[in-house]
């Protein structure tokens, strides 16, 4: 019995080699290609971080510690330790005043065949095929809180600089549960080029602190439009010129009288023709209900003139240059 108490007292007095964790919300921009491991002592299952990339910063091994824990998307576990000297730390911006509440939302949907005609070098424009989802349906571009000057909320200076330089793949990855990520990769082809990272950094944080809530809302709005007469009018008239007024009427067939006022049609010039490249839809309020899309439409919006007619471009396989 005495020996048992002796062993217990020794164990209780023994200094535990467990680092204290100091939480920190910010980013870690890699300046060296250093190993990032599961543990500090042995760096098990280490992978190298990429110079210039931003990683979400979770905390330090202790206050002012020499190791930081970053998040590596897709790794198990995602939390990895790396030496502090291997990068630059920056806290997320804390707004001195409460954020302005958005007055509305602008849903931007891309017609990818036209986009790829003018951006053939983008990763999402490789392997064009008429069998692809985005050959006949709208793709997600973004969901923008209004007014348009409301952007870069709770964003670090480095994130903003990288975003404005269009170095989107160097931005931290957007962490989503697998079901949302799979939908987003299909319905937002631009995520191959980091569009999801750009949209979250520039617009998403002004909508919600939760990226899943932001992208789920955007995808729900997109699916409502892709189930409408507007999408069918596009897919039924590939390669044809259509008047904008007929597209607004198609929109109202699905969503009721006055819905056409919430619709803006964007055209771009290509090889002597104007192509429909994007539709933008104005929504009321900052938290429009994705499950009640028709009720969310801003039917009092005064639309910009936009293009009066345009060509519904089909997806042309093999086209690589404008």
Helices and strands in order, then pairings?
Blueprint: H1 2-13, E1 22-30, E2 35-36, E3 47-48, E4 54-60, E5 67-71, E6 79-83, E7 87-91, E8 104-110, H2 112-118, E9 139-146, H3 157-164, H4 178-187, H5 195-202, H6 211-226, H7 229-236, E10 241-243, H8 244-255, E11 263-270, E12 273-284, H9 293-296, E13 309-311
Antiparallel strand pairs: 1-4, 1-7, 2-3, 4-5, 5-6, 8-9, 8-12, 10-13, 11-12
Total number of distinct structural domains: 2
State the name of the first-level CATH class of the largest domain.
Alpha Beta
* N-to-C span: 86 Å
Major pleated sheet? 5 strands, antiparallel
Rg from alpha-carbon coordinates: 25 Å
CATH superfamily of the largest domain: Ribonuclease T2-like
- The percent range for strand residues is 15-25%
Which CATH architecture of the largest domain is right?
A: Alpha-Beta Complex
Helix/sheet category: alpha+beta
The beta-strand count equals 13
Strand order of the largest sheet: 6-5-4-1-7
Quaternary state of this entry equals single chain
Structural description of this entry:
With 322 residues, the protein is of the alpha+beta class. The chain folds into two domains: 17-91, SH3 type barrels (Roll), CATH 2.30.30; 104-311, Ribonuclease T2-like (Ribonuclease Rh, Chain A, Alpha-Beta Complex), CATH 3.90.730.10. The chain has nine helices and 13 strands. It has helices spanning 2-13, 112-118, 157-164, 178-187, 195-202, 211-226, 229-236, 244-255, 293-296, and strands at residues 22-30, 35-36, 47-48, 54-60, 67-71, 79-83, 87-91, 104-110, 139-146, 241-243, 263-270, 273-284, 309-311. It has a five-stranded antiparallel beta sheet, with helices on one face. Helix 4 crosses helix 6. The chain is elongated, with a radius of gyration of 25 Å.
């Amino acid at each position: 019995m005495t020996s048992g108490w002796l062993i217990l007292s020794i164990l209780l007095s023994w200094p535990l080699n467990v680092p204290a964790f100091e939480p920190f919300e910010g980013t870690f921009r890699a300046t060296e290609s250093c190993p990032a491991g599961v543990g500090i002592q042995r760096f098990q299952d280490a992978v190298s971080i990429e110079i210039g990339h931003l990683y979400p910063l979770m905390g330090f091994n202790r206050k002012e510690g020499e190791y930081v824990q970053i998040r590596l998307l897709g790794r198990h576990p995602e939390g990895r330790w790396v030496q502090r000297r291997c990068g630059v730390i920056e806290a997320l911006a804390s707004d001195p005043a409460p954020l302005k509440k958005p007055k509305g939302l602008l849903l931007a949907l891309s017609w990818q065949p036209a986009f790829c005609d003018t951006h053939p070098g983008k990763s999402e424009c490789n392997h064009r095929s008429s069998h692809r989802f985005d050959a006949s349906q709208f793709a997600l571009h973004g969901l923008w809180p209004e007014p348009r000057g409301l952007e870069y909320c709770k964003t670090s200076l480095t994130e903003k600089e990288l975003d404005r330089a269009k170095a989107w793949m160097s931005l931290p990855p957007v962490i989503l549960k697998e079901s949302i990520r799979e939908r987003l990769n299909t319905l937002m082809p631009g995520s191959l080029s980091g569009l999801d990272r750009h949209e979250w950094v520039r617009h998403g944080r002004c909508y919600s602190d939760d990226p899943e809530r932001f992208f789920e809302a955007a995808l729900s709005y997109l699916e409502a439009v892709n189930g409408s007469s507007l999408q069918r009018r596009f897919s039924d008239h590939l390669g044809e010129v259509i008047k904008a007024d007929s597209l607004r009427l198609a929109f109202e067939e699905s969503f009721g009288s006055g819905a056409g006022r919430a619709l803006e049609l964007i055209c771009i010039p290509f090889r002597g023709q104007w192509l429909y490249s994007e539709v933008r839809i104005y929504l009321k309020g900052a938290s429009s209900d994705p499950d009640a899309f028709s009720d969310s439409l801003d039917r009092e919006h005064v639309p910009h003139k936009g293009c009066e007619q345009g060509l519904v471009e089909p997806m042309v396989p093999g086209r690589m240059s404008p």
